[in-house]
Amino acid sequence: MNTRISIISLVLLFISSVSFAQNTQSDYEIQKSFKTQYKHYQNELDDASSPANVKALMDSIKVLDRKYHDHYNLLNKALYPETYAQKMDKLRESSVRTLDRLRTIKQQGQKMSNLQNQLTTYQDSFEQIRQHSDSLKRAMQKSVKSEKRLSALVRNYRKSLEKRDDLILAFIDSMGSTYQKMDLAKMQNLEKVDQKGHLKSNGDALEMIHKITQANLQTLQKNGDDLRLQDYMRMSEVQHQFQNMWNRLGARFKEVYNGKNADQLAADINKNISEWNQELSNQTLAALHDTLKASGIEINDFSNGQEFYSAVNSYLGSKIKKSKEGNSKAAYKDFKRFQQFWNRVEVQWSDSFVNAGLLTRDQMSAINGKVDMWAENAQPNSSNNIMVYLLGASVLLAVALGVMLIREKKSNGKTEA
Amino acid sequence: MKSFVQKVTILMFVSALGLVGCKQSMVISKVDYSQSIESVLVPNDQGMVEDVQHGLKFNVKPLQYMETQDTSSVTVRQVRYIRGSEGYYYITAPDFKNVYVMAPEKNKLELENKIKISDSGIPKPAFNQRSSYIQLLNRNNGESWQLKPNGIKKEQNQMAKNEGK
Known about the structure:
The complex is a heterodimer of chains A (417) and B (165). With 417 residues, chain A is mainly alpha-helical. Chain A folds into 4 domains: 2-81; 120-294, no CATH class; 305-378; 381-417. Chain A has helices spanning 2-22, 27-47, 51-68, 72-78, 84-142, 147-181, 184-193, 198-202, 204-223, 229-256, 262-294, 305-325, 329-355, 361-378, 382-416. Chain B is of the alpha+beta class. Chain B has one domain (39-164). Chain A binds chain B through residues 23-29, 31, 74, 77-78, and chain B through 36-38, 40, 80, 124, 126-129, 137-142, 144.
């Protein structure tokens, strides 16, 4: 491109010089030739695709100025109401602006290239983890007979999913911040400059997002039996952040995407996220139910967040009532079990519970209040025991004193006798 | 009574004549009509040319007839004209043997002078506006002439000037 501009400029200057040497130019031809060359450089500046091109054009514009400067009186008349100086200033300013623009675009292109490398790394890692998870899943299916081996494989499989979720979160962070900062107007300029270049490859981001939503949905649909509540809580966090990123930047990903099926991909992503939400919610409720059952916390059945809250509320209400009536070791064990479960919810999963729609913040506060109330009453009443001990001790002391008194009386009687 | 009416009528007539005679006339002098750069126009099939920038529209057939005595079809492929400071139009075309000095009149251009340039005509003529005259240029060889409404004077070209030194 750079060479092309130089050659064209040289040819133009050569032709005009030759024609000047061979044929005497009239005023009409001088102004016409100036206007033609001026227009040519304007167009070249509009079409310039690299800073080097513009620098070559700037040199040619200097030559143009040297060539026509002597005719400025004539050109002032021909260019009226503008002047020759104004026109040349305009061309020089335009070249500086173009140079700045292309430099920025070049930098933006560099950023896009880095982003593409990042994306490729994510894609590779994602694929590796996916293959690892798949192979573990196949191994699990083959090892159903060996309980011990199966358990180890399930553990590995869950770790593999955890790694994948970490990778997705890193992807969200990285893509999110990059796309947030991205200047779309400059991106469009970049697209004009190099249609085959960076933007096409960057369009992979939309495909990557599409792939992630597909894979997440499949993971939920196929592996429900192998996952625990903590897995769902982590997935819920990933899902929440992923959906936020998509809601915030989905339009940008789509706009930047260079493929033809952007609308279809975006529609699929929306559909996948919606199904992912529903599936995650259903499976989380089931896993919660299993966890409570395994912990010996017997609450009523529930099929949604509101029912879960009602069930917990009613469970706590009845337990508090019973604890007020009297305590037993079994009742205290119930309390400890629930407290252990609830502490984990509060410390580790409170955001996930809220994001998954299981409980609202207010509902969590209400449950906290009830758990505190239960705690006050659940403790076996230690003051009563002390009274019993004190009474016992008093009785013993009285008996001892009585015995000692009788002995002393007897010994006094013997002495008197 | 009759003589009185006659007197009044005569008086009114004389007054009217006086009023007409007293109408003020205004003249702006030292007007410079010079056009900076010549216009180059291409005639249509009917021979019409139009210079939108300078607001001039005319038919080239009378000029073609003067040169070729033929107006059966428009053979002039290009017309070049420039207006001098006095207001006359200098008109010529490629291969014309003459420059036509035309005076603008109401809805017409009247031939003021026909200035002969050469017997063979100039294949690539051009006009340049100069401070006190119109320059006619042969773009093929750089020959040039100074044109005024009433005559022509050959200029010594640059090469000849250089040789003279």
